[in-house]
Amino acid sequence: MSSTPSVQLYTVRDAVSADLQGAIARVAEIGFTKVEPYAFVERADEFAKAFAASGVTAPSGHAPVIDSDDPSRAFDAAATLGIGTVIDPFIPSDRWQSIDDAARIADRVNELQVAAAEVGLRFGYHNHQWEFANQVDGRSIYELFVERLSPDVALELDTYWSTVGGADTPELLRRLGDRVQFLHVKDGPVRGDIATALPSSESALKVPEALATAFTSQLPAGSGDVGVAAILAAAPHALRVVEFDGYAGDVFEGIAASFAWLAENDK
Fold first, then answer.
1. So what's the pLDDT on residue 1?
2. pLDDT confidence of residue 101
3. 0.85 exceeded by the pTM?
């Protein structure tokens, strides 16, 4: 393992909403020294205090920048929090239908990478399943997107969703090499409603009942159908970021189980 793992704080969103500092303290007690915040732009000062109180850092953070009229707000907040890479987490499926769609998004991402670099940051994108399930002439939209990207753009591969979308994720990681700087690590079933249900086109956080139910079938790393060990072996350099979209049990126990599995199996 390249370093100790991070955790996407969206996983513990209910605890974050109730008590941000307490939630981060609980994450730190598990052993995490790194976190990946979401929606940090509006709460940068609160996040900064919570990070300092628990001694955690944030190498990466999620913010909806591709559609933003003022990307500098996210970049300024990232600088405040010591975030090195700002990652856009979601462009909905209906905007990933054609080669022109892939080119349009890639060109915007390239522009944002230039703007980020001007203030000492990197910019990146995080996938769901549809960038792989949506294909043109037998090739996934994700591959067409990546071909047009600047090599300076950082990719965060959600390895669960790439697998659900039909990718051979270890093979993909070997091809992409060090362009992938971050891996979302989660496990669970990869077929059924989880493969075809889509969130709202307005927000990844608004999902139909079938998808919300499927989220709760996600499992700690190493206990589902994803083949996490082979995925990790294909990208030894990438920072592992533990995440659940949903979890049936105590979510802090879930991330603790993933943390323990990584410590034992990702060497």
1. 43
2. 97
3. yes
Phi then psi dihedrals of residue 141, to 5 deg = -60, -35
**How many other C-beta atoms are found inside a 10 Å radius of the C-beta of residue 57?**
13
How, if at all, do strands 139-140 and 135-136 pair?
antiparallel
Instruction: Give pLDDT tens digits for 17-46.
Output: 999 999 999 999 999 999 999 999 999 999
Distance from C-alpha of 8 to C-alpha of 129, rounded to nearest angstrom: 18
Mean pLDDT within 230-247 = 97
Amino acid at 102: A
- For the CA atoms of 6, 205, 253, 58, what is the dihedral angle to 10 degrees? 20
Q: How many CB atoms lie within 10 A of CB 31?
A: 15
Total residues belonging to the chain: 267
Backbone φ/ψ region at 31: left (φ over 0), alpha (ψ -120 to 50), beta: left
Burial (CB < 10 A; 0-12, 13-18, 19+), residue 49, is middle
Hey, what are 182's tokens? 């971050």
> Do residues 220 and 254 lie in contact, with contact meaning Cβ atoms separated by under 8 Å?
yes
- pLDDT digits over 157-199, tens only? 999 999 999 999 999 999 999 999 999 999 999 877 777 777 7
Each residue of 116-133: b (16+ CB within 10 Å) or e? beeeebbbbbbbbbbbbb
The confidence score (pLDDT) of residue 2 equals: 52
- Residue 111 vs residues 102, 114, 153, 213, 237: alpha-carbon distances, Å: 14, 5, 10, 37, 26
The position carrying tokens 């409603």 is 193
> What are 158's strand-pairing partners?
184
Q: Which two tokens stand for residue 196?
A: 């075809």
